Amino acid sequence: MASTHTAYDWITERISMSLESGIGRHLWEGGRRYHVYREGRYSLPNDELEQQREELMHILVMDILDQKLFLAPMTEPPQKVMDLATGIGLWAIEMGDRYPDTNILGLDLSPIQPTSLTNGVRRVPPNVTFQVDDVEDTWVHDDDYDFIHMREACGYMRSTPTVIESAIAHLKPGGWLELQEFHWVAEKEDGTIDPNIPVNRYMDHMMSAAASTEGRKIPIVPEIGDIMKQAGFVDIEKKTYRVPYGPWPKDSVSRRRGAVFSVNAELLLPTSDKMLGHIGLTPEQAESLYSDCVKMFHDSSIHCYATYYVWYGRKPDEATDEADR
């Protein structure tokens, strides 16, 4: 029987878990905890505060997508699913609840997912498993997956194109890949970008830091469709959703999403200290930048949006799709 927990249950569960159980599996720096496997590969922490932020993001995304876990137009439930950079594992767990006959594998650098049993109560569906793995390394998994999913990870990958190439190689013909990502650059109501908006100044610094220290390009989200096409995907589709920075909209749904999104952003900002330090920003300068962003979130006169992207595409069916070309 599928478990009956809700997303909100996981905050209580994770806070109650003993940190001692993670000794030797994590690193501490500046009062925050980071993954030890492939140290430094992922710049964000994995401690309780970051896990709560991830949960808040999951709740927000489910709200944006009207409680849909994916948008790829699969004609029947997938039998074999992989969730890349699964984080705390909520997407994989909810997939397991909704599709009890589907086998779901969640991969992440950090062993922070809930355990199967806590005090005799099942917390992870029996059809869901988690593994510590680096999705940017050579994949050793099967090549017959029906569906591969990744959320909020492209901006932290050294090479998103390489991950997408690995994904298509491990999908069965006709299988689907879906990438869900926020494009954090703030656009005004008319669609223009003001470089003086605090969030955009922050993004400029983060793009410079990623390029100079790790050779990464962010934001890469609007280009994902082109990358998928180059990798060989077909039937590529893009869905976009405008999410306000702050609770300034008049309608209740947008106002709710803007409030949750801004709380999430406030939690995310301080995790950038290391990245910004690489390009010479002092802690005081970084804190001033964060403060400007937070003020923006609460300034009802600043009307701007981030954009949530959902990209999905299908691996060609070798028989029919090649004949159509």
Entry keywords:
325 residues; Rossmann fold; alpha/beta; 7-stranded mixed sheet; globular; 10 helices; two-stranded antiparallel sheet
Polypeptide structure, described:
- This protein has a single domain (9-324), classed as Vaccinia Virus protein VP39 (Rossmann fold, 3-Layer(aba) Sandwich), CATH 3.40.50.150.
- A hairpin with a 2-residue loop joins strand 1 and strand 2 (32-35).
- It has 325 residues and is an alpha/beta fold.
- Strands 7-4-3-8-9-11-10 form a 7-stranded mixed beta sheet, with helices on both faces. Strands 1-2 form a two-stranded antiparallel sheet. The chain has a two-stranded antiparallel sheet with strand order 5-6.
- Helix 2 (48-64) packs antiparallel against helix 7, helix 4 packs across helix 6 (224-231) and helix 7 (252-268) packs antiparallel against helix 9.
- The protein has helices at 9-16, 48-64, 90-98, 160-169, 198-214, 224-231, 252-268, 273-278, 283-297, 320-324, and strands spanning 26-29, 32-35, 80-84, 103-108, 117-118, 121-122, 128-132, 145-151, 171-188, 234-244, 304-314.
Summarize the structure.
GO terms for molecular function: methyltransferase activity. By secondary structure, the chain is of the alpha/beta class.
Number of strands: 11
Radius of gyration: 20 Å
- Quote the CATH topology: Rossmann fold
Major sheet characteristics:
7 strands, mixed
Succession of helices and strands: HEEHEHEEEEEHEHHEHHHEH
Please report the number of helical segments.
10
Low-confidence stretches: 1-24
CATH class: Alpha Beta
Strand order of the largest sheet: 7-4-3-8-9-11-10
Beta-strand percentage? 15-25%
Architecture (CATH level 2) name: 3-Layer(aba) Sandwich
Family: Belongs to the methyltransferase superfamily. LaeA methyltransferase family.
Protein name: Methyltransferase domain-containing protein
InterPro entries: SAM-dependent_MTases_sf (IPR029063)
GO molecular function: methyltransferase activity
